[in-house]
Amino acid sequence: MTTMRAVVLDGPGSVAALRLREVPIPEPRPGWVRIRVEAFGLNRSEQHLRTGLAGNPVFPIIPGIEATGTVDLAPGGEFAAGQPVVAMMGGMGRAYDGGYAEYTVVPASSVTPVRTSLDWATLGALPEMLQTAHGSLHTGLAIQPGQSFLVRGGTSSVGVAAAVLAKEHGLEVLSTTRNPARLDVLRELGVDHLLVDDGSIAARVREIRPEGVHAALELVGVNTLPDTLRATGTHGTVCFTGMLSDEWTIPDFYPMDYLPNGVRLTAYSGQSSDLPQADLQRYLELIEAGKLPVRIHKVFALEEIREAHQLMEDGGAVGKLVVRVRD
Fold first, then answer.
1. What is the Cα–Cα distance from 228 to 163, expressed in whole angstroms?
2. Which has the closest alpha carbon to 88: 70, 61, 109, 59?
3. Which of 37, 80, 232, 297 has a beta carbon 3.0–4.6 Å from 317's, enabling a disulfide?
């Protein structure tokens, strides 16, 4: 076999721009690894690539900033053939072809070995979602047990993961959704305080925590960021990680007017190395034991990639969208 199925994007466009094609199976050079892809999760940055919002893309390209599967070939000997692995970031789907394919070739530094009994669809939901949530909580916010924590954009895949990881770490969690029908989802995840987001929630947060929260994760964008900052207490920290609203720049930014006194603003945009193998393995074992819930909205086949992207663009998912590459 010399060819494979892959989703190719020739340039920005609607979901119709995602085309399933037969293309040559890529060959890895030393220092790179070829992965036999079993599943991958969808991410907002892939929508940004498709719609033309991503910076410096290379076209045509196979999108996908993550993939899960088994090692097919590692010329440098970094991994054994058949080893289950996850891969993410490091230029995947932007600088070189990514995970929307039956095989992908990535730098060995972007590959993490795993030991797990989880099915491929569940494992496929996890790499980038866990990396972003873990990095936001520990690198961006330096969370500590006993703190109060606000998730703005709580029913997104990263919002769900962040709430679950924060609860596992011993935090009191407040989480938002624009849709009242989704409150039960947050309740099932163990969220302590549920908030319907009408664009202004700071006053309601301070009814629950008069001094403001210790930490807040902004996943909606700069349109809600000022309100999130007002919900955060003195010496608290807001981490800007997501832009579900597709709004990420602040015009005429004047820090002394924008930032409340004593509230810190940081950001997180990580790589695979920001989720150490030991932490990833611990999360997988907690998920296997039923102690860390994973919310998957729907699993698609590779030929359903347009439907999956449309659902992501419409904001219709609660949790992660996954594509299962093989039967």
1. 16
2. 109
3. 297
**Residue among 184, 127, 155 nearest 244 (CA):** 155
- CA–CA separation, 227 and 164 (whole Å): 23
Sequence-separated (6 or more) residues with CB below 8 Å from residue 174: 148, 149, 150, 151, 191, 192, 193, 194, 195, 205, 208, 209, 213
pLDDT (average), residues 151-175: 95
For the beta carbon of residue 197, count every other beta carbon within 10 angstroms: 19
pLDDT in the model for residue 231: 98
Question: In angstroms, rounded to a whole number, what is the distance separating the alpha carbons of residues 291 and 44?
Answer: 27
Place of tokens 């079993």: 38
Q: Any residues with CB less than 8 A from the CB of 216 and at least 6 apart, and which?
A: 149, 150, 151, 152, 228, 229, 231, 232, 236, 237, 238, 239
Average pLDDT (88-107) is 96
Q: Are 259 and 227 in contact (CB under 8 A)?
A: no
Residue with tokens 């964008």: 221
